[in-house]
Each structure stands twice: as structure tokens, then as C-alpha cells.
Amino acid sequence: MGAGMVSTVRVLYVHAHGGSLAVLGAMAAAFLVANFICQYPWGWLTDRWGRKRVLLVGLTAQALITGSYVLVSDPVLFIAIRCLEGAATASILPSARAAVADLFPDQQRGRAYGLFSAFFNLGFLFGPAAGGLLAGLGYVWVFLVAVGIRLIAAGVIWSGLPALRPPRSPAHETQATSGWRSLVTLPLVAAYVIAFGDYLWIGFDLTLAPLWMRQHLGATITMIGLAYSVWALPSALLVPLGGRLADRYPRWLLILICGLGQLPMYAAYALAHSMTPILIGFAIQAALYAVVSPAVDAHVAKSSPSTSRGRVQSTYSAVGVVGAFVGASVFVPLYALDYRLPLIIQGAGYGVVIIAGASLIALSQRRLTPAEPLEPDLTEEPAVVALQ
Fold first, then answer.
1. How far is CA 387 from CA 156, 157, 172, 378, in A?
2. CATH number at residue 53
3. In terms of residue numbers, what domain contains 105?
4. What is the pLDDT of residues 310-338, one digit of tens each?
5. Residue 343, SS3?
6. What is the rounded CA–CA span in Å between residue 295 and residue 380?
7. 232-235: long-range pairs with CB below 8 Å, 24+
8. Strand ranges (E), the chain
9. Where residue 387 falls among pLDDT bands split at 50, 70, 90?
10. 85 falls within a domain
11. Is residue 384 part of a domain?
């Protein structure tokens, strides 16, 4: 929610303090580069130091960095702040997702990740709305309230999350000492392929989506905001159901069916001349993605050695950031040639990665043997797991 609040006013705030388009572009690049570079170090640290400590450090750092915006007026310093923000942000999702994997056995992880994604989407649904309302009182209030929200989140982590240590066994110790080999197994490579395809849209969204809706579809600023809400709301409501499906049915099959089901939406976006098909398409695509997301998350958790879950999650996120880079870099020149090209190429690319990723997951499951070490039973209460 804090990130969503600040995203509504950050560009306007920096521009009001003399930030040029070059500064704004440098801020975006600094954030993505720092986020990519810091993913693996944070993942390594959460495996060594514990999920709770890393989350506390990351949330506190985010709060302090967000507060520093109100103390700065030099546009160049905003680039440095955005770089620090990218580094701190890299600590959150890998640690949180690894904690979910520690707390729940595989047969419950689909539902657990479904609820996790629901709250994540609700934060991005209500955050921008709250930021827009607070901006009426002044941009500074948006940053200050975002600081408070992140400090509250740190307090929730401090009081509510057990200081879990990943369960260890001789087999898992062997996997942990294999270094990078434990991060590039066949089932994990399958997940990385899907993450790359997922984040292509993020690259389009960061660079072109609002411009596309404004210039070629005649959307107002309010309508553009409504489009993001139309995406976020079905995701938040339906992703818990998607998690239940991921616990009952083959995850590779859910990913394949609901992933390929999104492809007609890209064709509809490319052919659209108004916002109506976009709003309908966003709602349908969000509902389908609500099945794909927890299925992939649960698959990643199951495929991760308990002693390197943080590193696996950080690698997974880093591959996604690379996908966003590629999307932003490739789609901009394509957009200059024809605004439909990024949407067509993106749909085709997403179809390829879904087929490839789902096929690799299915192949990896066929290779499993009874001799493969099983995950520890984590169905006990968290406190018991912590003692173990």
C-alpha cells in the first residue's frame, strides 16, 4: 500500500522540484538496476540471517528512504534516493515468499500464496486511491503517511511472524552446499521462464501503457486509473480460489490453460479503438492470471531446497526484473513503428514462455522418483516448527 500511495505522486513531486524527463528516466533506471543487483544478496542473507530480520530491516529502510523525499530539493539527489529504494525493495518479496514456504506444507501452499497475492493486490488497489486523496492536502503528506504504514508493517512482522529457521536435513544440506546448481534445477528453470514472460508486461506498463491508453484510446486520467483498478480487484478477489485450485489439480496444467487463455486479450488490445475492450479484457485477464500466479508460486516453493529458499525467490524475482528490462527496451522502438506491435509481440512471447514453462514443469514431475528426499512436515504450529 505504501508503494502504491507514493507511485501516484512521485513523478509529479520530482517534476515540481525541477526534475526533467532525463531525471525521471534516470530514476526509473536506477531503481530497476539496484533492485536487480540486490536481489541475490538479500536472498542469501534471508537464508543465513532469517526471514523476520530481513523483513524488519527492509521495511524500516523503505520507511526512512520514503521519508527522505521530503528533505530533498536537488533533482539529482532524487536519482540516488530511487537507487536506494530499489535496493531496499529487493529485500521484501523474496523474504516474504520464503516465509510462506516455511510456514506451510506443499498441499496448502497454493491457498497460502493465493491469500498472500490477494493482500498484495489489495494494497495496490487502495494505495493509489489513498495517495490521490492525500495529495489534495499536499504531496508531503503522501510520503509521511507511507512512512507510517511501512513502520506499522514492520511492527506487525515483529509481533506476528515467528523467527523460523528453515528445517534442515542431510539431503537438504547437500543441496544447499551445491551453490548455484540448487538454483538452476529443471523445475526452477521452468519457473524462471514463466517469470520472464510475466514481467514483459511490467516493462510495457512502466514505459508505454498510460501513453497508449491516452493517445490511441482517448482515455482520461480517471479512466486510466479505473483500468488499473479493474485489473487489481478481480485479482484480489479470485486469487484465493486460484490457490485452492493449485492445491487440487496439476499446477502445470493450470498454468498452461489459464496462461494460453490470456492470449486473445492481447489481440483484443491491439485491435481496440476505445477503452471498453481494454476494461473488459483487463477483468478477464486478471481472473485468469489469478489462477496462474499461486500455481507458479507454489511450484517454486516446492522446488526450492529449504536451506536456499530465499536465494531461489530472489533469483526468481531477478529474472522477472530482466524481463521488465527487455520489455521496456524492445517495446519502445516497436511502439514508434506501430503502437500495435508491442501488444502483438508481447502476446506471442507470452504464449511461447507459457508453453515452454508448463512443459518443463510437467517434464520435471515425470522425472521425480520415490528416492527423492521429501520435504519436512511443517503442518505443526509455527512455534513448534521454530523449535525444530
1. 21, 19, 18, 12
2. 1.20.1250.20
3. 2-366
4. 899 899 999 998 998 888 778 888 888 89
5. helix
6. 23
7. 232/121, 232/122, 232/124, 232/125, 232/286, 233/121, 233/125, 233/286, 234/283, 234/286, 234/287, 234/290, 235/117, 235/118, 235/121, 235/286, 235/287, 235/289, 235/290, 235/293
8. none
9. very low
10. yes
11. no
The CA angle 278-279-284, to the nearest 5 degrees, is 95
**What is the spatial distance between Cα 254 and Cα 84, in angstroms, rounded to a whole number?**
38
Residues 6+ apart with CB under 8 A from 369: none
Residue listed under C-alpha cell 520514503: 66
**Cβ–Cβ under 8 Å, residues 266 and 331:** no
Task: Flag whether 351 is in a domain.
Answer: yes
Give the per-residue pLDDT at 21: 67
Residue 261: band (very low, low, confident or very high) from pLDDT cuts 50, 70, 90: very high
pTM: 0.79
The reply to whether 31 falls in a domain is: yes
* Domains: count for the chain: 1
Residue 168's pLDDT is what?
A: 55
Chain Cα centroid distance, residue 247: 21
Interatomic CA distance for residues 150 and 7, integer angstroms: 15
Q: What is the pLDDT of residue 165?
A: 60
Note the pLDDT tens digit of each residue in 5-58.
887 778 778 878 887 767 877 887 888 889 989 998 998 899 888 899 999 999
How is the chain split among helix, strand and coil, in percent rounded to 5?
Answer: 85, 0, 15
